[in-house]
Design a protein that fits this description.
Blueprint (H helix, E strand, L loop, with lengths): L1 H21 L2 H5 L6 E2 L2 E2 L34 H18 L7 H23 L1
Antiparallel strand pairs: 1-2
Helix pairs in contact: 1-3, 1-4
Protein backbone atom coordinates (compact mmCIF):
# COMPACT_ATOMS: atom_id res chain seq x y z
CA UNK A 1 0.00 0.00 0.00
CA UNK A 2 2.86 2.39 0.75
CA UNK A 3 4.20 1.70 -2.73
CA UNK A 4 1.09 3.31 -4.19
CA UNK A 5 1.81 6.58 -2.38
CA UNK A 6 5.47 6.48 -3.40
CA UNK A 7 4.61 5.87 -7.06
CA UNK A 8 2.01 8.65 -7.06
CA UNK A 9 4.72 11.01 -5.78
CA UNK A 10 7.13 9.62 -8.40
CA UNK A 11 4.66 10.60 -11.10
CA UNK A 12 4.26 14.06 -9.61
CA UNK A 13 8.04 14.55 -9.46
CA UNK A 14 8.40 13.39 -13.07
CA UNK A 15 5.81 16.00 -14.08
CA UNK A 16 7.66 18.71 -12.15
CA UNK A 17 10.94 17.76 -13.85
CA UNK A 18 9.26 17.83 -17.28
CA UNK A 19 7.70 21.21 -16.57
CA UNK A 20 11.07 22.52 -15.43
CA UNK A 21 12.65 21.33 -18.67
CA UNK A 22 9.85 22.72 -20.84
CA UNK A 23 10.08 26.12 -19.18
CA UNK A 24 13.59 26.50 -20.54
CA UNK A 25 15.17 26.75 -17.09
CA UNK A 26 17.15 23.55 -17.59
CA UNK A 27 19.00 25.15 -20.50
CA UNK A 28 20.30 27.85 -18.15
CA UNK A 29 20.46 26.05 -14.81
CA UNK A 30 22.98 23.44 -15.98
CA UNK A 31 25.57 26.17 -15.48
CA UNK A 32 24.92 26.12 -11.71
CA UNK A 33 27.34 23.22 -11.24
CA UNK A 34 30.29 25.06 -12.82
CA UNK A 35 32.45 28.00 -11.88
CA UNK A 36 31.65 30.80 -14.30
CA UNK A 37 33.72 33.61 -15.75
CA UNK A 38 31.91 36.16 -17.88
CA UNK A 39 28.89 33.85 -17.92
CA UNK A 40 30.72 30.82 -19.31
CA UNK A 41 32.13 27.71 -17.60
CA UNK A 42 35.89 27.60 -17.15
CA UNK A 43 37.70 24.62 -18.69
CA UNK A 44 39.44 22.39 -16.20
CA UNK A 45 43.07 21.39 -16.73
CA UNK A 46 43.71 19.47 -13.50
CA UNK A 47 42.30 16.45 -11.72
CA UNK A 48 40.83 17.62 -8.38
CA UNK A 49 42.13 16.06 -5.16
CA UNK A 50 38.61 15.12 -4.00
CA UNK A 51 38.34 12.69 -6.94
CA UNK A 52 41.63 11.18 -5.80
CA UNK A 53 43.16 12.54 -9.01
CA UNK A 54 41.32 9.82 -10.99
CA UNK A 55 38.63 11.93 -12.68
CA UNK A 56 38.83 15.32 -14.36
CA UNK A 57 35.55 17.14 -14.93
CA UNK A 58 35.38 19.04 -18.21
CA UNK A 59 34.91 22.37 -16.40
CA UNK A 60 35.92 23.65 -12.95
CA UNK A 61 33.20 22.71 -10.47
CA UNK A 62 31.45 25.37 -8.39
CA UNK A 63 31.84 23.19 -5.27
CA UNK A 64 33.31 19.70 -4.80
CA UNK A 65 31.28 16.97 -6.53
CA UNK A 66 28.84 19.49 -8.02
CA UNK A 67 28.98 17.69 -11.37
CA UNK A 68 28.71 14.14 -10.03
CA UNK A 69 26.96 12.82 -6.94
CA UNK A 70 25.98 16.25 -5.53
CA UNK A 71 24.52 17.47 -8.81
CA UNK A 72 21.05 17.27 -7.26
CA UNK A 73 21.94 20.37 -5.24
CA UNK A 74 22.51 22.49 -8.36
CA UNK A 75 19.05 22.84 -9.89
CA UNK A 76 15.41 21.78 -9.57
CA UNK A 77 15.49 19.31 -12.48
CA UNK A 78 18.21 17.24 -10.85
CA UNK A 79 16.56 17.57 -7.43
CA UNK A 80 13.21 16.27 -8.69
CA UNK A 81 14.86 13.35 -10.46
CA UNK A 82 17.00 12.45 -7.43
CA UNK A 83 13.94 12.35 -5.18
CA UNK A 84 12.09 10.35 -7.82
CA UNK A 85 14.88 7.78 -7.86
CA UNK A 86 14.78 7.47 -4.07
CA UNK A 87 10.99 7.09 -4.06
CA UNK A 88 11.16 4.46 -6.81
CA UNK A 89 13.61 2.42 -4.74
CA UNK A 90 11.37 2.80 -1.67
CA UNK A 91 8.35 1.71 -3.71
CA UNK A 92 10.17 -1.46 -4.72
CA UNK A 93 11.40 -2.13 -1.18
CA UNK A 94 7.96 -1.69 0.39
CA UNK A 95 6.02 -3.44 -2.38
CA UNK A 96 3.82 -6.26 -1.13
CA UNK A 97 1.70 -8.21 -3.63
CA UNK A 98 -2.05 -7.72 -3.33
CA UNK A 99 -3.29 -9.31 -6.56
CA UNK A 100 -1.48 -11.18 -9.27
CA UNK A 101 1.71 -9.43 -10.39
CA UNK A 102 0.17 -8.37 -13.70
CA UNK A 103 -2.75 -6.63 -12.03
CA UNK A 104 -0.46 -5.02 -9.48
CA UNK A 105 1.80 -3.73 -12.26
CA UNK A 106 -1.20 -2.28 -14.08
CA UNK A 107 -2.50 -0.59 -10.93
CA UNK A 108 0.91 0.81 -9.99
CA UNK A 109 1.48 2.10 -13.52
CA UNK A 110 -1.94 3.76 -13.36
CA UNK A 111 -1.12 5.39 -10.02
CA UNK A 112 2.16 6.74 -11.42
CA UNK A 113 0.29 8.09 -14.46
CA UNK A 114 -2.37 9.64 -12.26
CA UNK A 115 0.28 11.45 -10.21
CA UNK A 116 2.01 12.62 -13.38
CA UNK A 117 -1.14 13.83 -15.16
CA UNK A 118 -2.66 15.50 -12.10
CA UNK A 119 0.53 17.48 -11.48
CA UNK A 120 1.37 18.21 -15.09
CA UNK A 121 -2.10 19.41 -16.06
CA UNK A 122 -2.58 21.20 -12.76
CA UNK A 123 0.57 23.28 -13.12
CA UNK A 124 0.75 23.65 -16.91
Amino acid sequence: MVSIAFLFLCGALKALADLQEESGMKEVSWLNKWELRKGFPVYNAVRPWYYLWLYRPRFIERFPYSSTWLVWLTDKWHLYNAFRSVLTILAVVFYSPTLEIYWDALILWGVFSLGFNATYEGLK
